[in-house]
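hey so i finally got around to running the thing on that chain from the lab meeting. sorry it took forever, my laptop kept dying and i had to restart like 3 times. anyway pasting the input first so we r on the same page abt which one it is
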Amino acid sequence: MKNDQRNYVVVGVFVIAMVAGLILWIATLAGNTGSTDTYLTRYDSVLGLSAGGTQVYLNGFQIGKIESIERAEDGAEKMFLLEISVKSGWQIPDDSQAEITAAGLLSTNVLNIRRGRSKTNLEPGDEIQSLEASNLMAELTDTAAGFNRFLETTLKPQIETIVGDLKETMDQVNLLLSGENTSRVGAILRNLEDVSEEVQGLTSGLGSTREKLDGAIVKVGDLIDQVDQLIESNKDDLGASVTDLHESLEALSRHTEAIAINLESTMRHMNEFSQQIREDPSLILRRRESAGAPGGSK
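ok and heres what got predicted. didnt touch it at all, straight out
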């Protein structure tokens, strides 16, 4: 009998321990272990949120959950009042903002608190500023509509302009490649061939001319060498000639002054004679008569 009672006690203790462990495990998963702080926030729409199930994050790190969702009092700016529980010890600046978001297209909505930069923190029971949830499908629809508008207003006219330019270019190419223009192009190519042959002949002539010029340059060089040799061989005679010329110039320089004086005297006499003639032209006749008379001076 005692053994049976002992077994019942052991089994009872084991069952109680397992139930306590299960409760603790469930509480741990639910995030209800430890002390928490309560904050409030408000939204016009709580689509995708649930009391006791929606997790609360701070910059992506889980810190609590939504405890309750209630209808706000009449006349409130936003329709729903949310009460959230956060693990004690987390400091939330008063300029932080709570946003309803989802980690992915198929993920459930969560409440993520964007931590602000203020030095002042909220006290438990204060209200956190809220950001309305963004409608992903609406944003995609708006993006698609904007892209369609871009196609209609910007890209489509540019494409039409490019297509029109290409069509005009193809028409011009077709016109250029018509039968008449093809024959003209052939004639032009033949003329270019003739010009090319003439240029080739001219180039050959220029080559021969260049050879002649090279020969002339060689001859001029030889002539310069001969002149140099001639100057070198007659250097002494040239030096003597230069010396004689220098002496002659010095002698001429010495007599230049006397020659200048004589020229000046001659010019003065000529001026006096011309003045007498201007004053009395008959003087010439009288001189002639005097020279022709008997006993006249000769």
